[in-house]
Amino acid sequence: MALAVGLTMTACSDFLDKEPLDQGTDAIAFKNPTQFEQAANRLYSFGAKWDVKFEQNLDISGIGGNGGGAAGESHGAWGFGGHRECNILLEKAAAYAGPLDQMTADNPIAASVGTAYFFRAWHHFNQLRTFGGVPIIDHVVDVADEVVYGKRNSRYEVADFIIKDLKRAAELLPPKTKIPGMDNRGKLCREGAQGFLARVALYEATWEKYTPSIGLDLDGDGETVGAGKNKPEGYPSINELFSLARDMSKAVIEEAERGTFALWDECSDTGLSYYYLFNLDDGNGNLANYKGVGKNTNKEFIINNPYDFANKPGKNNLCYTVTTGQSTNISAWFGETFVCSNGLPIFMSTSASWDDVYPNPEFGGYDTFEGEFENRDMRFIGCITLPYHVNWTGSTEYGEPLTKTGQPYPTPLFPAPSNKYDPMDPANQSKNGVYNPMLGVNSTHNGYGCRKYLIEGAGRPTNTESPDWPILRLAEVHCIYAEAVCELGNGAISDDDLNFSINKNRKRAKVAPLTNALIAGKFDARWFNFATGSYECHAMTMLDEIRRERTCELFAENFRLDDLKRWGIAHINLTGRKLGRRVLGTAYTNPANTVNGPASVANYFGEPCYNPDTRPLQYGLASEDPSDPNYGRPVATLAGNCFWAPRDYLDAVPLGQIRLNPNLTQNPGW
Q1: Which of 67, 249, 484, 587 could form a disulfide with 643, with the two C-beta atoms 3.0–4.6 Å apart?
Q2: How many angstroms separate the Cα of 264 from the Cα of each of 250, 275, 278, 406?
Q3: pTM of the entire structure?
């Protein structure tokens, strides 16, 4: 019984567990609008929560090794309990109110029906992203249903089904202006359905445009392999999908311009708004940031999974995980991708020749540990631990918590110069000691760390951190619009469209607007060619810059792997040699900079911060030739450790399900 497996789901209401119903949607009577709302509340299961380990082992975080696995017996995404819950509500709604295609938004159960359409699309889209084509579950299935032992629908049939469900959801859900109040902040609204539809349309348009070039037919014939190529009548073209993404994102942005939504920028004085957006956790008197503002100031999250310290704690050990460096990382390549405040890369060129390279005049260089962080995109600066700062943290074993407003960072203490560890030095007795960075034994120097999602306040004991988790936020909608418009323009986009969309994100990050004039005739001289494993000079294009902007805005939010796949570059970016941060010709090799760290590195006091004799790099240096673009960089990842292949664009259909239903075909390459 292939589809019968997993036809149950954990009970969950939409926001703060307002309507706990232990026996499932089947147990609800569906005799009045209140009961339909109770059933709709139960559908809120995004399968997404705070996970600070999102996007580990990718190009933006650093790769140790990947790929090469075998198809599994089971898979967490091959389950249909959520689909069933939605279909129960929809069938009950038709019996209660008549044909659903005739329902209008003023019907008392319209919002509940819209919620069911949204989540049915949500569950199918998660499977589309994972497997491609899957069985479409558009009704309540029992074990005798023909779909249980049927074939997979093609990805095009599934995408068409998702789009139609989301269009219907947008018609029936109320606008955000009709759902006021903090208690309703997790409730679905019309703009949420529009924004999610824009995400789906952009995803599918780019997938269909770019993945045919990867060297593997991911659709298959649908008979012996894959889910096939069948397209339903009236299926949209690639440009029609881009147009849908543009139009839906535009509608949301226009609503934002009327004041319904807004980028959160309460900490604009320091440029730290982006960082603090993700740790708004002020319940029960906790201090979430140096401004003392909380969740009630956040109009950026269009769809979110709300948490509350008292009623629905997050139960994720965010503080400890981030503070101890176990969360996602910002890789060397990705860190250097963030532009300077003038909107341009850290190194540029007037041609494709390395002879014409020059540093961005705003870039602080490598002569000091601090230099490369000067005048940079604040999304980068805010989310790393700078060499001259320490962080507030709720994990008091490793630092001090934020207890008063007005100070975005603790006051650092610097030890007195010494070739010996002095336990009496105030810096060595403090959690706020700041020391010269050092490269340890077998380092690859492939990262800047990451403090995104760090909860700073003192009122959050372990596993009680409870910021809201963003499912869809306005900044993503800006990115969707810009990318869709640029694709429709064959790589061109007007300055007006850039100002309407991603330049709003850049303004918060203290970065100059992206314009056509800004990048005209310029080359990015820190462009990493993932196909060759080397840096090169690359002519700047609008599509590249829009993709850069998306990557910098949405990192560690679980978008990157999908983006690499839909752009048709995952098999390139996730394989081959990777390089770390430059070591030679930097502050690390200045003899005046010696190790003066805490007791854990006492044995190295007085040594250079980089000592290849006592602390060699794991894989050595890529080049010691100053004229080489890869000069002074450690090899961070060996090409021989990466086995990510074109087949990995889609996961394998679980072998256990294929045995239960022989009509299920396996995905290509598995």
Answers
A1: 67
A2: 19, 10, 10, 18
A3: 0.96
